[in-house]
Specification:
heterodimer; A: Rossmann fold; 9 helices; B: about 260 residues; 14 helices; globular
Chain lengths: ~350, ~260
């Protein structure tokens, strides 16, 4: 059943949305606030009226109320039932659908084990941490054997470490349970970690839908390019494997070192805000540190875009307005540029995508 | 004086006003007369009648109030504003006027039909139920609606995506979550019904051993200049009223402490 099709959907900001989500696919909807991401989830769940057609596995759902659609929904605010303990929260959907008590107990235990929350069984939501609440809400959403799961910013409220861990764990759980999922996320990097495909949504239209790496390396529209932060794309002319899992890549007159296990890299993406500029020589090893000349300064609202030239390679960098104010940079000035190693993304020769 | 102290003293001033009023009752308090009046058949009947009618009227009020409050809290429908406004009626016009309106209704052809073929309201216990119901149902709806407004619709949406029909979501999520508010609303409804006088005397009259609730008995004693008797009945009303409110508050605090 889990193949989802949206045809000519109109609602509020959404204009003529056409979208197909494959069986067992994890699709991420990414875009700025007000793009219509949550509205799409509400339409799939049947929580709001709409114009157009929603089909699950070829059958129309337009007249089917939410409780008969079999769609699990992890809301951004989680909304765990405060009057029920963790086990009862997870069991809620199963009880409502009148599953036998033995099945309920087995399923609840299974999910609590899978999400590592067994010890919370008798606790009430108000006594749980953010991450624990998230786990309980996930278990509750998929407990009644839902084959489709909608997740609205599933890890937005967590600190980045917990959030990353949970995202990856959630992703493997969804694959294991063969669930088709639509994630809403505002941040592309988070989406890249979990999604099979990413749809970039802007002002109610889908700007681009493709595999994670494609968006970063081949943004199709100006909006997508701006949304992902206009990364610097470097084409690799030569590669040399170094010791301890590092590779040295030559692009033009620049050499960049990055952690990599394979043999050949085709392209590298460097987000502008991951390039540091310093007017004095920074301390530490000379790894990925270059002398450069400032060629262009474009002040925006809260950041300043600075183009620098490193031995003939032009790179776009971004500085917070405050930092820029403290540095007194001028066009033609000599600066030091450092590229953060761990933020690099690359495409391999066989066009697979990795971090 | 700090603002905090000023605010606290204001609350004490209000307490003192009521305290002095209650204490003044004891100026006319007569111990023997108190017990004689208390155990007299007529007083006991009034107590029983008051407790019984207030409880029945509260049940009817809350029965209508819960779904009405839910509708007003959750749905936007034509006529919603009109209903919301008319709920203020018992609060803006005096209960006597409300009772008079009911009496007038029973003198119109549809009213005569109801009285003749259905239930006889005028000068009967059913009249007391009706009087207490019409004076309390509006407030009951208001209070329960306020409690339901506090509960995010999100919980019901979650229930819907987990397979609950709208009615199931209402009974398994909304009702348990607004339980505290519903209990509080019921207590206040009951207290208001217990003290209801104007509409009751207008519709049901003041027949001893038939429709004489405690407030009506107080009025009758006062009208016949029986000050000591009045004092006794007022004290009984205060004791029952405050005692019940206090008791139920204690109980609900324990109950809510348990679900927390």
């Amino acid at each position: 059943m889990p193949l989802i099709e949206l045809k000519n959907i109109q609602k509020h900001v959404l204009r003529d949305i056409n979208l197909t989500i494959r069986d067992r696919e994890l699709l991420a909807l990414v875009g700025p606030n007000g793009a219509g991401k949550t509205t799409i989830l509400n339409i799939v769940a049947g929580l709001t009226d709409y114009q157009g057609e929603v089909l699950f596995d070829g059958s129309t759902m337009d007249k089917t109320p939410p409780h008969k659609r079999g769609v699990g929904y992890l809301f951004q605010d989680l909304a765990l039932f405060p009057h029920l303990d963790v086990a009862a929260n997870i069991a809620y959907g199963l009880r409502i659908q009148k599953y036998p008590e033995a099945t309920i107990a087995k399923r609840v235990k299974e999910l609590m084990d899978a999400l590592h929350i067994s010890r919370l069984e008798k606790r009430h939501p108000h006594s749980l941490s953010g991450g624990e609440k998230q786990r309980v809400a996930i278990a509750r959403a998929i407990a009644p054997f839902q084959k489709i799961l909608l997740l609205d910013e599933p890890t937005a409220s967590l600190d980045s470490q917990t959030s990353k861990y949970l995202r990856i764990e959630l992703c493997s759980l969804l694959k294991k349970l063969e669930i088709t999922a639509i994630f809403v996320m505002h941040d592309l990097l988070g989406a890249e970690e979990v999604a099979d495909r990413i749809a970039i949504l802007h002002k109610g239209t889908i700007e681009q839908i493709s595999r994670p790496g494609d968006i970063l390396f081949n943004p199709k529209t100006r909006m997508v390019s701006e949304f992902i932060g206009m990364p610097n794309i470097l084409h690799c002319d030569d590669c040399r494997i170094l010791s301890s899992g590092l590779i040295e890549v030559v692009s033009g007159n620049m050499t960049i070192v990055l952690p990599y296990e394979g043999s050949t890299i085709k392209k590298i993406a460097i987000p502008p805000h991951d390039i540091y500029i310093s007017d004095t020589k920074p301390p530490g090893p000379a790894l990925n540190r270059y002398r450069a000349t400032v060629t262009e300064i474009v002040p925006l609202r809260s950041v300043v875009r600075i183009k620098v030239n490193i031995d003939g390679n032009s790179l776009l960098t971004e500085l917070p307005m405050e930092t820029f104010g403290e540095m007194n940079l001028d066009i033609g000035q000599e600066v030091f540029v450092i590229i953060k190693l761990r933020r690099l993304r690359y495409v391999e020769e066989f066009d697979d995508y990795h971090r | 004086m700090t603002f905090k102290k000023l605010a606290i003293s204001m609350s004490f001033a209000v307490f003192v006003v009521y305290g002095v009023l209650i204490l003044s009752l004891f100026y006319f308090y007569n111990g023997r007369l108190f017990f004689d009046t208390l155990i007299s058949e007529r007083t006991l009947f009034s107590i029983r009648l008051s407790l019984f009618t207030a409880t029945v009227a509260t049940l009817i009020s809350v029965f209508f109030a819960i779904p009405s409050a839910y509708a007003l809290s959750r749905f936007r429908f034509p006529g919603r504003q009109m209903i919301d406004t008319i709920l203020e009626l018992p609060m803006i016009i005096s209960p006597v006027a409300l009772g008079a309106v009911v009496l007038i209704f029973f003198n119109t052809p549809p009213g005569v039909f109801v009285q003749g073929k259905g239930i006889q309201f005028v000068f009967t216990i059913y009249g007391i139920f009706l009087a207490q119901f019409i004076t309390t149902v509006g407030i009951s709806i208001r209070l329960i609606k306020a409690a339901m407004d506090e509960i995010p619709v999100r919980y019901e949406e979650v229930a819907r995506t987990l397979g609950a029909s709208p009615a199931k979501a209402f009974f398994t999520v909304t009702i348990p979550l607004s339980k505290k508010g519903i209990i509080a609303a019921s207590i206040l409804t009951w207290a208001k019904a217990l003290g209801e006088f104007g509409a009751t005397i207008t519709i049901a009259g003041s027949m001893a051993m038939k429709t004489e609730t405690i407030p009506i008995a107080i009025f009758m004693r006062l009208a016949s200049a029986d000050i000591e008797g009045t004092v006794v009945l007022v004290l009984i009303l205060i004791t029952i009223g405050l005692g019940t409110l206090y008791g139920v508050r204690l109980l609900t605090r324990k109950a809510t402490a348990l679900i927390r």
